[in-house]
Design brief:
31% strand; six-stranded mixed beta sheet; single chain; alpha+beta
């Protein structure tokens, strides 16, 4: 079954960095070790289920319940005490495939926040140890006053269509990425460069990767994404090919194949149901014929 895109408000998950008080026993506990998270029989554990001396970082709230994170990455290469941390360690991909969108977003935020805190301990300008800024997911250097906020990377995905032959459905361009599963048909995608708008990035990536020029470009939606690295935001677009007769030419580096598929004969090897890439494909496939 194909998952639906999230609701505009994130379905009840609200990110935050404020400490209104100490963690309470019933609060949600997100425990991270490297790229994995600890889960229990009913989703994420509660604070009361973990050691009392755990160092917690505020993550926000899910349906009004505060959520806290802690990082055990230093223990990732050792045996974690199963009595202290009972449960199952799982990747974000596995969680996102099974959990509702708000819980997947919370898991992604835990990975992003805790990875950032682990990798941004020292000032890049003067090498002093950074200090937390109260109420924010950011740090400041006590010596040179360098401000270091939690940052994320933006990437774009583009569902490109063109009219099919007379009497036939429209066609969708799908590609195979050199660094992805070899059988997977996906969308043209890439990271946004500094000084570039999302729409300009979409046009540039399409031109670079498949040699096509786009006509109309329309924003579809976005999704926080933790699979290609913590702190990634995917922005999806639909677009039409400026020249309906143009054929894609892959760049040979990032892509291995590119093909037009009729919307009524899409391949089975499509992106996962929880991804905005799949939401885009399903959205385009469900549109009335042009």
């Amino acid at each position: 079954m194909t998952a639906a895109p999230p609701t505009p408000d994130g379905g009840g998950f609200v990110p935050g960095a404020q400490r209104s008080g100490p963690p309470q026993p019933g609060d949600l506990a997100l425990v991270v070790a490297g790229r994995r998270l600890l889960t229990g029989s009913e989703g994420f554990p509660r604070v009361a289920e973990l050691p009392a001396d755990t160092a917690w970082v505020p993550l926000g709230a899910l349906a009004g319940v505060p959520a806290w994170g802690t990082d055990l990455t230093d223990l990732a290469g050792e045996d974690v005490d199963e009595e202290a941390y009972p449960g199952r360690w799982r990747s974000w991909r596995a969680l996102a495939a099974e959990l509702p969108t708000p819980l997947a977003d919370l898991a992604g935020r835990a990975l992003a926040v805790l990875t950032w805190r682990r990798t941004h301990r020292w000032c890049g300008a003067c090498r002093a140890e950074l200090a937390d800024v109260p109420g924010e997911q950011s740090r400041r250097c006590p010596d040179c006053d360098l401000y270091v906020p939690l940052r994320f990377s933006a990437a774009v995905l583009v569902a490109i269509t063109r009219p099919g032959p007379a009497g036939s459905p429209d066609e969708l361009l799908l590609v195979r990425h050199a660094d992805g599963p070899p059988e997977l048909w996906a969308l043209v995608a890439g990271y946004v460069e500094a000084g570039e708008s999302l729409e300009a990035a979409a046009r540039r990536e399409v031109g670079e990767e498949v040699g096509l020029t786009l006509g109309a470009v329309s924003y579809f939606g976005s999704q926080p994404w933790a699979l290609s690295g913590p702190g990634v935001l995917l922005a999806g677009f639909t677009a039409t090919a400026a020249d309906p007769a143009a054929e894609p030419v892959v760049d040979g580096r990032e892509l291995t194949q590119a093909r037009w598929f009729p919307l009524d004969a899409l391949p089975a090897e499509l992106p996962a149901a929880y991804s905005i890439s799949r939401w885009l494909v399903d959205h385009v496939a469900a549109r009335p014929a042009s």
